[in-house]
């Protein structure tokens, strides 16, 4: 039976155009989605945009546009960027979509009927830039740590969600990994938060904010961000807001619960508290895993418009090409940790790993193979090492260790380079063509395996390598994965093609 795999990125807030941080999460999700498709799983990959709130209303006003017109433009920029990066999402959810609005309306009614939403007064410190309430403990010298502004003291009528009610139940589920949080240090961080600070009921609506989903029983209120945005993970796979027919039981696909919600560390807390509490209220299963990655700094500094160091995804694609941009993002740091990037570092890695690495290996191997009439498969000299590499590679991707999987690929390339250097096929071609044909088969067959490993990361490059090996990319993509990665898949009578350099040095 075909396994299902449902992966999500956060939905990105449309207060500004996409940057490299958004791209990092999205490419990572794409790599994992492509890998699961490659091995034969039934995959659903969701991304999208979060489009409601006072901040959007304000931004639209400044741009002299209606909120929907403004959000349409920014959402289109995200979709353009993901197209530039060859992102293979199955749906792009927008919180302004009609089916999402209908489902949110139904969900709010259900939670209220259950007694989990009540009318109250919310008092707190509100950061207008974050559009979030802060506690004193969140502030640094009285300022929002993110925006360096003093939050306003707010006291307003609000419909409240009974978050505190679910504290003990959620803490137990996190501790026993029913809701798995990775890496482990992030799980420990959340457990500490639960035990030391606890959960309080939260505001689920705002009064006098026009740009949002109206609270169905009180149109003077609109749904606050949590009540709206989180439900995209359900509506994006077709949920209609009816808890009696949840997406894990009915409808085509049956993708819920999500296998992994991928996100950066700044939104872990709300994903580990509010979102699972909402699911418990709705009577739905919790997601299996929250995987949390770190932030990028640019040459030691935080990305900032004022510093002029914000990198757009299309800037990377323009300089390096789509596959190289994807590779550079995924290899920039240990997945799950913070990283420091710069153009110099990217240039250096491009030349070392791509131009001198896979590009050089393919070019020199194809050049040598073109000097003999046919290959011979006699010794299987690289077979064991390739099998070991596959085991390590697959383990890494199952554990969301994306950078480790790339390390496994690079290790396999270095082994192949050493194999060429040790066996000197350029000399054997002159004196022992059979031995040369065997050595070159081992090299090209190893490259074929490397190309399959590269497929989730660099799909266009994998297809170019297949073409160089004399294989039809369309035929390769139709192959059963288990058969494709068996040793000996390259025909000995293949006709190699010298193409353009994969990655010319910068």
Number of domains: 2
Give the second-level CATH assignment, the architecture of the largest domain: 3-Layer(aba) Sandwich
Helix content: 40-55%
* Sequence stretches where pLDDT stays below 50 over 5 or more residues: none
CATH overall fold name of the largest domain: Rossmann fold
Strand order of the largest sheet: 3-2-1-12-13-7
Head-to-tail CA distance between termini: 47 Å
Percent range for β-strand residues: 15-25%
CATH homologous superfamily classification of the largest domain: HUPs
Give a quick account of the main beta sheet: strands, pairing sense, barrel closure. 6 strands, parallel
Tertiary shape: elongated
Highest-level CATH class of the largest domain: Alpha Beta
- Structural class by helix and strand composition: alpha/beta
Radius of gyration: 26 Å
Query: What is the strand tally?
Result: 16
Number of helix segments? 20
Task: Return the average pLDDT rounded to an integer.
Answer: 92
Attribute tags:
4-stranded antiparallel sheet; Isoleucyl-tRNA Synthetase, Domain 1; methionine-tRNA ligase activity; ATP-binding; zinc; 6-stranded parallel sheet; cytoplasm; 16% strand; 506 residues; alpha/beta; protein biosynthesis; Rossmann fold
3D structure, described in words:
There is one protein chain. The chain has 506 residues and is an alpha/beta fold. The protein folds into 2 domains: 4-293, Rossmann fold (3-Layer(aba) Sandwich), CATH 3.40.50.620; 343-484, Orthogonal Bundle (Isoleucyl-tRNA Synthetase, Domain 1), CATH 1.10.730. Helices cover 47% and strands 16% of the residues. It contains 20 helices and 16 strands. It has helices spanning 20-38, 54-62, 67-84, 98-113, 167-175, 184-196, 225-229, 232-235, 268-271, 274-282, 313-320, 322-330, 343-369, 383-398, 402-423, 425-431, 433-454, 459-468, 473-478, 481-484, and strands at 4-13, 42-50, 91-94, 117-127, 132-134, 152-161, 180-182, 202-203, 205-207, 214-215, 218-223, 260-264, 289-293, 296-298, 301-302, 339-341. The strands form 4 sheets. It has a 6-stranded parallel sheet with strand order 3-2-1-12-13-7. It has a 4-stranded antiparallel sheet with strand order 5-4-6-8. The mean pLDDT is 92.
């Amino acid at each position: 039976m075909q396994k299902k795999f449902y992966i999500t990125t956060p939905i990105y807030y449309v207060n500004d155009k996409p940057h490299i941080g958004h791209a990092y999460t999205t490419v990572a999700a794409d790599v994992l989605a492509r890998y699961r498709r490659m091995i034969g799983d039934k995959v659903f990959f969701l991304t999208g945009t979060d489009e409601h709130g006072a901040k959007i209303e304000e931004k639209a006003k400044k741009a002299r546009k209606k909120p929907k017109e403004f959000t349409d433009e920014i959402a289109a920029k995200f979709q353009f960027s993901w197209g530039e990066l060859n992102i293979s999402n199955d749906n792009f959810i927008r919180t302004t979509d009609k089916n999402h609005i209908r489902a949110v309306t139904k969900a709010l009614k259900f939670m209220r009927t259950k007694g989990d939403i009540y009318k109250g007064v919310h008092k707190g410190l509100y950061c207008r830039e974050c559009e979030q309430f802060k506690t004193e403990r969140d502030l640094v010298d009285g300022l929002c740590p993110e925006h360096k502004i003093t939050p306003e003291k707010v006291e307003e009528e609000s419909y409240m969600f009974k978050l505190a009610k679910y504290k003990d139940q959620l803490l137990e589920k996190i501790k026993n990994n029913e809701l798995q949080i990775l890496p482990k240090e992030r799980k420990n961080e959340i457990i500490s938060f639960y035990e030391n600070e606890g959960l309080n009921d939260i505001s689920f609506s705002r009064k006098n904010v026009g740009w949002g989903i109206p609270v169905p029983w009180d149109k003077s209120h609109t749904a606050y961000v949590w009540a709206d945005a989180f439900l995209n993970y359900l509506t994006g796979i077709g949920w209609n807001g009816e808890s009696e027919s949840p997406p894990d039981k009915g409808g085509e696909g049956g993708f819920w619960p999500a296998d992994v919600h991928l996100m950066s560390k700044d939104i872990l807390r709300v994903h580990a508290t509010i979102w699972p509490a909402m699911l418990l209220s709705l009577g739905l299963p919790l997601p299996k895993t929250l995987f949390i990655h770190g932030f990028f700094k640019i040459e030691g500094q935080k990305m900032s418009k004022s510093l002029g160091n914000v990198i757009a995804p299309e800037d990377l694609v323009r300089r390096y090409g789509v596959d190289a941009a994807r590779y550079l993002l995924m290899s920039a740091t240990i997945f799950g940790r913070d990283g420091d990037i710069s153009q110099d570092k990217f240039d250096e890695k491009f030349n070392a790993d791509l131009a001198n690495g896979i590009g050089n290996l393919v070019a020199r191997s194809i050049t040598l193979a073109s000097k003999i009439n046919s290959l011979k498969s006699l010794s299987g000299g690289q077979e064991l090492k390739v099998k070991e590499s596959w085991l390590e590679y697959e383990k890494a991707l199952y554990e969301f260790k994306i950078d480790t999987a790339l390390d496994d690929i690079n290790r396999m390339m270095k082994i192949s380079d050493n194999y060429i250097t040790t066996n000197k096929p350029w000399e054997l071609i002159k004196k022992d063509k059979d031995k040369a044909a065997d050595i070159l088969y081992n090299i090209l067959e190893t490259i074929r395996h490397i190309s399959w490993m590269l497929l989730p990361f660099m799909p266009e490059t994998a297809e170019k390598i297949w073409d160089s090996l004399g294989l039809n990319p369309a035929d390769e993509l139709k192959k059963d994965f288990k058969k494709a990665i068996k040793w000996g898949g390259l025909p000995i009578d293949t006709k190699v093609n010298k193409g353009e350099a994969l990655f010319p040095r910068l």
